[in-house]
Specification:
Blueprint: E1 23-28, E2 31-36, E3 42-43, E4 48-54, E5 56-57, E6 60-66, E7 75-76, E8 79-81, H1 88-100, E9 104-118, E10 121-132, E11 143-150, H2 160-175
The structure holds zinc ion.
Zinc ion binds at residues 15, 17-18, 20, 36, 38-39, 41.
Amino acid sequence: MTELNKTGSYDVNYCAHCGSDEIERKDIDGRRRAVCLSCGRVYYRNPIPSVVGISIINKELLLVKRGVEPDIGSWCLPGGFVEMGETTEEAVKRELFEETGVKVKPVDIITIDTTIGGFYGDVVVIAYEVELESKDFVPGDDALDVKYFPYDILPRLTFHSHRLIIDTAFEKMDANK
Ligand SMILES: [Zn+2]
């Protein structure tokens, strides 16, 4: 039975490499890790890399209304997890297109935030400043709405980490003026 542990990671109960179910926990490099007794593979756990796109036009910020859990109906920065085989820049372009319908170009990194033990476990969020290359907004399948908000009247946000990223983005924008 595979269950989420405290940090949101999945526990290892069989070896994905050789198929053995002889898994033992050992202290390796200062942490408790799952080890396959049959083939010796050590199961390291790592945070998941993700991206968000920051589009600020006339001091207003682009947000997406969530149509999926967690917290359906709240708002968040457009973005998502990096897929295998793509760069983080490709991921932010893809996610923004999927969620908002617009094509974007990542132009700068605003900040990098690490969330420990959140809804998705440990996640590293790379926040890109993006420029729009098209303007026809169409909410994606997972989104209920797409809209720009002034900084001082932002709606309820899904993730605390996004609040911190947004604050940093607006501070940087002011600093650049
Ligand atoms: Zn194995």
